[in-house]
Amino acid sequence: MAVSNSPILLIEDTPSLQMIYAAVLRKAEYQVICAGTAAEGEAHFRQSNPKVVLLDLMLPDRDGLDLMQDMLAAAPDTCVIVITANGSINKAVDAMRGGAHEFLVKPFEETRLISAVENAFRLVKSRPHPQAASLAPQVDEPLPPFIGSSNVMRDVYRKIRSVSRSMATVFITGESGTGKELCAEAVHRISDRSSGPLIALNCGAIPVDLLESEVFGHLKGSFTGAISDKPGAAAAADGGTLFLDEICEMDLNLQTKLLRFLQTSTITPVGATRPRKVNVRIVCATNRDPLDAVRKGIFREDLYYRLHVVPIHMPPLRARGRDVIEIAESLLAEMAREEGHDFSGLHPAVIERFLSLQWPGNVRQLINVLRNVVVLHRGPLVTVSMLPDDIAQQTSRYPTDPNDAPPPNLQMASGTAGDPFDVFVGKTLAEIERMVIEATVERHQGSVPRAARELSVSPSTLYRKFDVWNKIQHSAE
Amino acid sequence: MASNSPHNASENTNACSAQTERKPPFDIGVLEQLLNLGDRAVADALVEQLLSDFARIRDALQNNLSPTNFAELCRATHELKGLSSTIGARHLTQVTELVHSAAEAENGDQTQVFCGPLTTELDRVQAHLEALRDQGKGA
Question: Which residues of B touch A15 (CB under 8 A)?
Answer without folding.
Answer: 49, 52-53
